[in-house]
Amino acid sequence: MRKIMFATALSAAILIAVSVSAAVAVDEVTDPSPSQTNGYAPDNPSAPSLSGSTAIGECVADAPWISYSVQLNDPDNQITTTTATLHIESGGNTWSQKLGDLVDGKLSGKILWPGADVDGAGVGNNWPGWEQIDGQWAQTDENFGWTRGEVTAYIHVNASMTVPLSYPASTADCLVNPPGENALPLSLPLTGMNAAVLPLGIAGGAVALIGVGLLAAQRRRRSRA
Q1: 151 close to 55: Cβ distance less than 8 angstroms
Q2: Is 153 part of a structural domain of the chain?
């Protein structure tokens, strides 16, 4: 009996000691340090970003333009420059254009697409990927023709952000090619069927038709039996 009582008392003492130790540990974690009570915080500045910035290709008066909106988020004032630049890259080709200086962290406007030009009235009279030969317009790889395909574009203000940018499409009211000329398609539309997938689709349809024929033949044999 004494051994049982001793073991019980020892177990109770161990549990009390563990509880006290846990309480002290919690107090040490939850009690604010002197630096925290005095209003000091760890030096962990927020990284600047260009979240919300955009660059969009659009057609205006038969000319391709890039409309941009730059929004700098720099809560800890880490950026030392206010100059915004737009960069376009593809297949080893690069193009850069200064957009201007941010005012209160913002900048917006539009610039002509590289290789494009307008007349005195602001109407397009030159287009990327086109040139005049003997008075006739002809498509070319020169004059920034590469910018009409898939490109990588990003805005840079010390911090950088990639933006989805593509050459604008012609409409009934606005052309981004020479008058009376249509640019050869660089690729099938993203909403259409990819050229590489088309043969697979045809083959799949043929297999489906064969399956239907075999099923019909099997049903006829069963009906005759």
Answers
A1: no
A2: yes
Q: Residue 197 falls within a domain, yes or no?
A: no
Structure confidence by residue, pLDDT tens digits, 48-63: 999 999 999 999 999 9
Decide if 179 is inside a domain.
no
Determine the structural domain holding residue 146 and report its residue range. Answer: 60-163
Report, as an integer, the average pLDDT of 30-34. Answer: 41
Q: Which string of DSSP letters, residue by residue, matches 32-100?
A: PPHHHHTT-----PPPPB-TT-EEEEEEETTEEEEEEEEE-B-TT------EEEEEEEETTEEEEEEEE
Residue 23 lies in a domain: no
From 39-53, 108-122, 156-170, 201-215, the region with the lowest mean pLDDT: 201-215
Residue-by-residue DSSP string for 209-222? HHHHHHHHHHHHHH
